[in-house]
Predict the 3D structure of the following.
Amino acid sequence: MKAYNLLTTIITLTVIILLSQGQAQARHNTMVGYSMIRDTTTPPTTTMTPDTMPAKAEKEKKEGFNSKTRFGIRGGGVISKQDYESSDITVLSEDTEGKVGADLGIVVTIPVIGGFFAVQPELHWVQKGYKYTNTTAQEIKTNLDYFEIPVLARFNFGGSLRIYGFAGPSFGWLLDGSYDPDNGLDPTDYLKETETSGVVGVGVGIGTFEFDIRYIAGLSDVSNAEEFKDAKNSSYGAGITLKF
């Protein structure tokens, strides 16, 4: 009898333990399943702090508009003339006058030292030339179209109102030429295909717009004829640039 009671007690305790373990395992599985559901339905969230802001944005905010590379489209005009020494002033007058022409260009400003110093290469199509009066008192206009590449050093000052100065060499190629009125001659027959100039100027910028004035001084002799020599182009220019 005692053995039966002991066996019954052992069986009862075993059943209780097994049931307890089953219930614990069931609770565990339920919690794991709930956790998996919660993880797949609730995406993790992160908080953007000043420490995680992009360094590039911080740099631009601190140094201003000129702290990053900018591209621009420039439109303007020039007043140009050509000075030379004539072998016979009775045939070719040395008294030349300025001529107005268009100046269209593409600009890229590349910062080197923060927003203070930059390199600014440009591409220009420029209408140069000059006017003179011939021996019959007729005014002759000489039109000279050039493709030019200035490579400028630029210095920036100011904040919301930007002031800047620039200077550097410019390399030009003669594209086309004509006389007005037409006399049957081609001025490109008497001029070299290339020229070297120096550029210096100042400008002011507000927002994405910049306005500049510049002087372009011819440094090389562009004459390719015996009738005149030491011929050099010079221009005063102004333009507006839209920066991106």
